Amino acid sequence: MTETRLRRVQRSVPGARALLLTAVTALVLAACGGGAGDPQQAAPPVSAPPTLAASTTPAATPSPASPTRELTPAQRAPRSTVPATTSPATTTMPPVTTTTSPATTPEITVAATLPERTIPEVILPSDASVPPTEVMSTEVVAVLPAALAGPAHPPRVLVSGDSTGTELAVRFGAYAEAHVGEIEVFHSAFAGCGLSAGNDGRLHAWNTPTEWIDLSGCTLQWQAIPQLITDNEIDVVIAAIGPWDGTDIRFVDGTTVNVLDPVGRALVQDAYDQFVASVRGAGATPVFIRPATIDAEWERRTDPIDDPLRWDVMREIVDATGAAQIDLPGWLTANGLDGPLGRPDGVHLAEDVEFRFIDEVIVPEVDRLAYV
User: Fold this and answer.
1) In principle, which of 260, 308, 324, 370 could form an S-S bond with 155, CB 3.0–4.6 Å?
2) Which residue numbers in the chain have pLDDT < 70?
3) How far apart (Å, rounded) are the C-alpha atoms in residues 1 and 27?
4) Sequence-ordered list of residues with C-beta below 8 angstroms from that of 224, at least 6 positions apart, any chain
């Protein structure tokens, strides 16, 4: 009966199609057991009304007592008012296909903002001559100070003096030849030439009976030393002097002096001071072989230079220059060589003793003083 009425309404009132769709949906939900009156269970709207399948029950002839009329909203029965005995309309619905979409992890985009790197500005002084490209260079160049770079050559030594100096120069030169690359030795000594020599007619005493010797010819040896220092890049100048500055000196007027009187002492002191100044002025370090007390020929002869007081004064004169010294008398005494064994003639060192003195004392002192 219900289906027949709905069909009639659908055929007679074209505008009631939407109302019919609502009623059919309500009946379907009721038949499927949907919760009555639950607005959340209502079917979602569709864009076009579904086509109802034709009923298999023949349509009944409409009753004259049931005229065709449009239902008002108030007359529409809700799903709960349908009698339990009313058979639900048979409707063929399309199969429901359930599609399970795979879980999709939402893409998360993280925008990381890195701190902006700030490069310090390099500001050069207004008078800087170095271009900015060189200042910003990443190249690292190690530059050693001159003091750390090392010397350009081994220590260079110039030996000066009288005959004690000439023997030292020859033997020191032989040592250098045997130790190539360790030390270099130059020679400027002259036998019989002390620092007190002069070209003013003075004479120096020698031997017994006394012989007066003109030493003016050797003065050029002393005068040439500053130039030798410059030309050969000498580091150390050694002065080794024996008897000639401790002996008597006679001038052309007949005056005789020596280190034991004030005039003679001042003369020798002045000569030693000038030597030290000239060596330092040329850029080298002056060094004296500290004089040992002379005893010429020991007991075989007597000579004025054998007086120990003269050599005490000579050592004081050397001390007064302020120059470095290599202690010969101290070394001789310490090694038991202060007699004829160390100096056979009372003046010059024995050859083997001098080689020991060079190796044990002079070379270490030169190494220490060369770059002061």
Assistant:
1) 370
2) 1-151, 372
3) 14
4) 188
Q: By three-state DSSP, how is residue 187 classified? A: strand
Residue 92: strand, helix, or coil:
coil
Residues 48 and 188 in one domain: no
Three-state secondary structure readout of 270-317 = HHHHHHHHHHHHCCCEEEEECCCCCCCCHHHCCCHHHCHHHHHHHHHH
Q: In one letter, which amino acid is 96?
A: V
How big is the CA angle at 212 (ends 222 and 170), to the nearest 5 degrees?
A: 40
166 touches 191 (CB < 8 A): yes
Q: Are residues 73 and 188 in the same domain?
A: no
Instruction: Record the pTM.
Output: 0.61
Residues 300, 157, single domain; the answer is yes
What is the number of helices (H) and of strands (E) in the chain? 12, 9
Query: Which element (helix H / strand E) includes 19?
Result: helix 17-31
Q: Where are any strands of DSSP class E within the chain? A: 156-161, 184-189, 203-206, 211-213, 236-240, 249-250, 256-257, 285-289, 324-326
Angstrom distance (rounded) from CA 325 to CA 196:
19
**Among 204, 208, 188, residue whose Cα is nearest residue 196:** 204
3-state secondary structure of 354: helix
CB atoms within 10 A of CB 160: 28
Residue given tokens 């004030």 in the structure block: 262
The confidence score (pLDDT) of residue 140 equals 47
Residue 271 lies inside a defined structural domain of this protein: yes
pLDDT for position 302: 82
| Residue 363: φ, ψ to 5° | -60, -45
Q: At what angle do helices 308-321 and 262-281 cross, to 10 degrees?
A: 40
Structure tokens at 338: 């202060």
Q: Which CATH number fits the domain that encloses residue 256?
A: 3.40.50.1110
Q: Residue 279 in contact with residue 266, Cβ under 8 Å?
A: no
